[in-house]
Amino acid sequence: MKKITSAALGVMLFSLFAVPTKAQNMESALNAAYKDLQSATSAPAMQEAGNKFGLMASKWPKEWVANYYAAYVNAYMAIKEPDVKRKDQLLDQADHYVNILNAIDASRDESLVLTAYVAFSRFLVDPANRWKKYLDIMNTNLEKAKKVNPDNPRIYYLQGIPIFNKPVLYGGGKKKARPYFEKAELLFEKKGMAPSVLHPYWGERENEDYLLKCEN
């Protein structure tokens, strides 16, 4: 009986320590890949970082955060990619991971925001022909995210971009978009915690760029 109890205790201890190790390994890998993505100055370097996120999503297929970043990086690369056909290929990959992360937890505000971001990336491929479908998807998901967590800065950052790019004649322009970027800025500052990939923090740098554009 004593041997059985000792064995059971050993299994319990292994389980307790194995879970944090897995989480720590995943977080470390995601952090490293995200830093590579942020510092990438060429398409090959960006693709290399993107491949790392894809490998992590394969290694941890049931982890929301692994699929989140695999989706994010493909949408991010699609925006930077000049070739239209390649853009849609990257966004097909982004949609694949978005479907997985939404199957894991579609109710999170970050799931809704990322779904909106991928839709926005689709719109940018061909704005003249895609604005109706994909801006509707984007705006619907951002409004849902706002109900879940109105303090998510990425909501207002993304809402501001189409307004910034819309002609003044049709209710857009710098003046109309600026309040969205200002609100996002305040919420980014309000977070007040050390950046961690486990709690998405992308968009702050880009939001600052739009604020500068609004001033010029």
Shape category: globular
Q: Can you name the CATH architecture?
A: Alpha Horseshoe
CATH fold description: Serine Threonine Protein Phosphatase 5, Tetratricopeptide repeat
| Poorly predicted tracts of residues | 1-5, 8-20
- The total count of helices amounts to 9
- Per CATH, the class reads Mainly Alpha
Signal peptide: 1-23
Keywords: Signal
Protein name: Tetratricopeptide repeat protein
Topology:
Elements: H1 2-39, H2 43-59, H3 64-80, H4 84-105, H5 109-125, H6 127-148, H7 153-165, H8 174-191, H9 204-215
Helix pairs in contact: 1-2, 2-3, 3-4, 3-5, 4-5, 5-6, 6-7, 7-8, 7-9, 8-9
How would you describe this protein?
Residues 1-23 form the signal peptide. By secondary structure, the chain is mostly helical. It contains nine helices and no strands. Helix 5 (109-125) packs antiparallel against helix 6. Residues 1-5 and 8-20 have low confidence and may be disordered.
Keyword list:
globular; single chain; Tetratricopeptide repeat protein; 0% strand; Serine Threonine Protein Phosphatase 5, Tetratricopeptide repeat; signal; 81% helix; mainly alpha
Task: Describe the structure concisely.
Residues 1-23 form the signal peptide. Keywords: Signal. By secondary structure, this protein is mainly alpha-helical.
